[in-house]
UniProtKB/TrEMBL annotation:
The keyword Membrane applies. It comes from Furnarius figulus. This is SAC1 phosphatase. GO terms for biological process: phosphatidylinositol dephosphorylation. The chain crosses the membrane at residues 109-131, 137-157. The keyword ATP-binding does not apply. Keywords: Membrane, Transmembrane, Transmembrane helix.
Amino acid sequence: QRLGVLHVGQRIEEQADFEKIYKNAWADNANACAKQYAGTGALKTDYTRTGKRTQWGLIMDGWNSLIRYYKNNFSDGFRQDAIDLFLGNYSVDEVEPASPLHVKKDWKFLALPIIMVVAFSMCIICLLMAGDTWTETLAYVLFWGSASFGTFAIILYNGKDFVDAPKLVQKEK
């Protein structure tokens, strides 16, 4: 009222248009910040916008959480490296000839996940499209199931190699 935005007696809670614009701007800002930090939109923006939790909002939060988990573990090491460089937590050593950022990946980092996905898909297909006999179907399911489980076990055993960790080590303070 002192700024002249509201008349005497008006309350901010009664301004539905302002509240809608404000909540949407707040949720849009949250999305922008979350995309920079986590690589996906913010969680619970349906609640921020409407004040209610929706089924679609729950589905989108689950999807965003899965994407965040994947990015955090397998493709976000460069983000931490960039933050460390920007903040000065890592200083580039001009004497060192090789870049710590360039690490050559082995063939298994591409081949094993593809094999696992194909084997798991084949297992599901064999379950859905049953063969002439139950023994034939069981044999196919056991083969593709063991192939998917085996590659998954190899990936788990070598888990630290598959994770995209930051490559720059923080300088000591």
